[in-house]
Amino acid sequence: MSTDSRISPDAIIVGAGLAGLVAAHELTQAGKRVLILDQENRANLGGQAFWSLGGLFLIDSPEQRRLRVHDSLELARSDWATSAGFDRDEDHWPRKWAEAYLDFAAGEKRQYLRDLGLRLTPIVGWAERGGSGAGEHGNSVPRFHLTWGTGPEVVRVFREPVEAAEADGLVDFRFRHRVDELITEDGAVVGVRGRVLAPSHTARGVESNRDEIEDFELRAPAVIVTTGGIGHNFELMEKYWPVDRLGEFPDTMLAGVPAHVDGRMLQIAEDAGASLINRDRIWAYTEGIENWNTIWPGHGIRIIPGPSSLWFDAEGNRFPAPNYPGFDTNRTMRTILETGYDYSWFVLNESIIRKEFALSGSEQNPDITEKDIGITLDRVRSSDAPAPIEAFKNFGPDFVVAETTEELVAGMNERSRGPVIDHDHLVEQIRQRDRQTDHPFSKDAQVQAIHNARAYLGDKIVRAVKPHKILDPEHGPLIAVRLSLLSRKTLGGLETNLDGQVIGMCDIGAVGGTEAGGTRTGAEDASGGGATGTVHDGIPIPGLYAAGEVTGFGGGGMHGYNALEGTFLGGCIFSGLRAGRAVANGGRSTGSGGSAGSVGATGSRGPVGNGTTGIESRGKK
């Protein structure tokens, strides 16, 4: 068994994704020695963040103010609360994390990243608009700040200082080391055991072998788990899929993340006594398309659409308000699955796709990823669709391009996984919408939404085309896109306090009621005393920390039921920062939203504090 290490680590980090790099950066800035383990090779350093578009959620930023967007922490708190819908006892720590993260997004976050060399593009995107009332899910204003350099740049600003620390002897990377067990002694986590996997020379994101070579055991005073979610583990996704809220799990789902995003460490941590909460909170997208140039198995890409495409179900019926492109992911997910089919259709034309289609992913936006200002400006001014979108039009199996409506519907029916679409029914719905574009007002709520989007300068410049008739030949050809569901993020996970310490679970068979400072789950018996199952005892497991998606981006699910977008990378950064600082400071963090006892929560009392927070309990289970 291998036990050697080039350093005697102060902390072991399991997972070399963004959250792990951030935690390592904070630790090495404090002079601590770090051992980083990952089951993949060095080519995958940075994990899923590398593939991202690089969106960051900021509040009342200079970029917003330049575009005359009036944002505030108060407005963002209200949007977050109505979107998260916290309504469970175990939402105690997620509420605290949400409050602390909002403070971070309105305060230190932008300067913290700027000091590392990260820059933003001037246009702020308006994601997850909701569209269903001021008191429901959605961003009231644009808050999606796009990184100049996309995901690779977000990774770079942390990777480079960590690699410099490696050169200085503070960091020891161990790739192809798969952790299978957390070592516990006297109730504390003191290290990890696992297996060294055979070398892999695969490129980033490509599925690697799982051939085992030898066992290993490594120890340190602290272990930080940063291994991501369950986005490529469809068996686990189906097990916890919220059928009551979203509908039946789809027969077809594309993979928005590489094969190594398997969620293994969730069970391994739970086996070591960790509390795992909100497993049914899963964030999948509704606008997935098959990648014609795949990197990992089942590789899907998300369309990030503007507001003008018409959205139809598998039978060719237009979705009702507010199921418009880019408005409310979970509501539209439920609407799609309620039809009994797991796919839907965009219908649009060349003018719409040129201006309104963007593809999520660093590799799908080479101009911004490569930080080429000339190509980026040409793309904005061009009358042609960006090259990656043209490639999907030409090679993507989900795209239909046609000169006539008859050709369009025939192509849609060739790609159908269910019913045959009636040509006349589909075309009449498009004509009804087209009649609402002859004047600067409309009774069609989607046309109204387009006018509203164009009232925002950022959307008018790059994201929302002027309303026009979709069937107008001057704007052709016609285009239809088959949309499948796409896995992406895990919104629940390991329960952690604000220092990233993992909360423990204990058997409540011997517990006569709720522990003081804890939160009980399970059914009480008829006498009201005791219960079967487990209890969140509110006590951190000594030596065990976690950050990133494995914690639902903080606390076990700081997003609640819905995400406002631009919050995933930020959640990895914030949680990695807090865990790293806590370990560096002997178990307590400093700065960035205060210590674990500084923010209270409504609902159950936790192990520290009992005040109230702007993130209240709302929504339904």
Write the layout of secondary structure elements.
Layout: E1 11-14, H1 18-29, E2 34-38, E3 55-57, H2 62-66, H3 73-84, H4 92-106, H5 108-115, E4 120-125, E5 144-147, H6 150-167, E6 171-175, E7 177-185, E8 188-197, E9 212-219, E10 223-225, H7 234-240, H8 243-246, E11 253-255, H9 264-271, E12 276-277, E13 282-290, E14 300-305, E15 310-313, H10 329-338, E16 343-349, H11 350-356, E17 357-359, H12 366-369, H13 373-381, H14 387-395, E18 399-402, H15 405-414, H16 423-434, H17 445-454, H18 457-462, E19 478-490, E20 493-494, E21 501-507, E22 519-520, E23 534-546, H19 568-584
Parallel strand pairs: 1-2, 1-10, 2-6, 10-23, 11-19
Antiparallel strand pairs: 3-5, 4-5, 7-8, 8-9, 12-20, 13-14, 13-19, 14-17, 15-16, 16-19, 18-19, 21-23, 22-23
